[in-house]
Amino acid sequence: MAGPSQKARIYVPPRSAMQSGKGRTHGWVLEFAPGEKQRLDPLMGWSGSGDTLGQVRLHFPTREEAVAYAESKGLTYEVEEPKPVRIKAKVYADNFRFGRAENWTH
C-alpha cells in the first residue's frame, strides 16, 4: 500500500458544527500526507494529482491500534492529541436574566 517514506497523520476527527454532543466522535483516523503537489487541469480547470493515497482515510477504534498499524507498515507518523471538549450547559431561565448582554430575540 504505502512506502516506508510515506508520512501519516493520526488524529481524532473534530465533530461537525451540526453536532452539539459527543455522539459519533469516538475513534481515530490515519490519513496520509500529500505525496505530490496538485496541478490544474488545462482543459477542465479542475485541480488534481496522481497521488491516490491522499484519498485514503483509515478509521481505528483506538489510538493504539492506529499506531500499531502505522508501525507494522513502516510508516513515519505523527499523532495529534485531541483537544478537550467542554460543553456549556444552557439554561432557559438565562433568557430572562437581568443584566444580560445579548439582544432580546423574542
TrEMBL record:
<dbReference type="InterPro" id="IPR006885">
    <property type="entry name" value="NADH_UbQ_FeS_4_mit-like"/>
</dbReference>
<keyword id="KW-0472">Membrane</keyword>
<dbReference type="InterPro" id="IPR038532">
    <property type="entry name" value="NDUFS4-like_sf"/>
</dbReference>
<dbReference type="Pfam" id="PF04800">
    <property type="entry name" value="NDUS4"/>
</dbReference>
<keyword id="KW-0809">Transit peptide</keyword>
<protein>
    <submittedName>
        <fullName>ETC complex I subunit</fullName>
    </submittedName>
</protein>
<keyword id="KW-0813">Transport</keyword>
<keyword id="KW-0679">Respiratory chain</keyword>
<keyword id="KW-0249">Electron transport</keyword>
